[in-house]
Amino acid sequence: MGSEGPPAVTIHVTGFKKFHGVSDNPTETIVSNLQEYMKKNGLPKGLILGSCNILETAGQGALVPLYQTLQSAISGKDSESSNSKRIIWVHFGVNSGATRFAVEHQAVNEATFRCPDEMGWKPQKVPIIPADGGISQTRETSLPVEEITKALTKMGYEVMPSDDAGRFVCNYVYYHSLRFAEQNGIQSLFVHVPLFLTIDEETQMQFAASLLEVLASLN
Q1: In the prediction, which pLDDT does 17 show?
Q2: Are strands 159-162 and 86-94 parallel, antiparallel or unpaired?
Q3: What value does the mean pLDDT take over residues 11-38?
Q4: Closest to 68 measured CA to CA, from 180, 174, 190
Q5: CA distance 151 to 209
Q6: With contact defined as beta carbons under 8 Å apart, do 84 and 8 qualify?
Q7: What is the pLDDT of residues 30-47, one digit of tens each?
């Protein structure tokens, strides 16, 4: 039987807990409610929603749980997602100064935290993975950021592609995730969202669902 459209894709999602200056992290709400929201509105064809995890907003101190989370996506390759050829990690992070959504194209091998993370770590100009080289080293997602952004803009969202995920925990997690994805034949994407004060919760939930739909439709 010829299969129609792109093969099934399993998408695993993460958000972050609160951190310095952001007591209510919108990504914690989005990711905590995503399973239920997608179920209620119907999963797009070809999409399997995998795990939805909330990460500690910390770098080095939270590496072990981060890798356990990333690893869970591929250890489950034989179970529910066995008919899925593609696995994508989608990481949501908040940019409290943003007025629109941003799809991040790359991460930089530099940890320079403007404030301590939730475990008190405040690195300055430290390479995230020293074996990769210096702090100007970048890793790029293999997903088509421009195409994804265009599709979401067409759906009516205020969204832009971005080449700068900052140098804080978002960039730190994305860099590790991109490296992990490359090593394990999967894909990774980071998306920055504004505060709910800027774009309300319902719109952000719709955006998250639309993003997954766009990712599932990619060939």
Answers
A1: 93
A2: unpaired
A3: 92
A4: 180
A5: 13
A6: yes
A7: 999 999 999 999 999 899
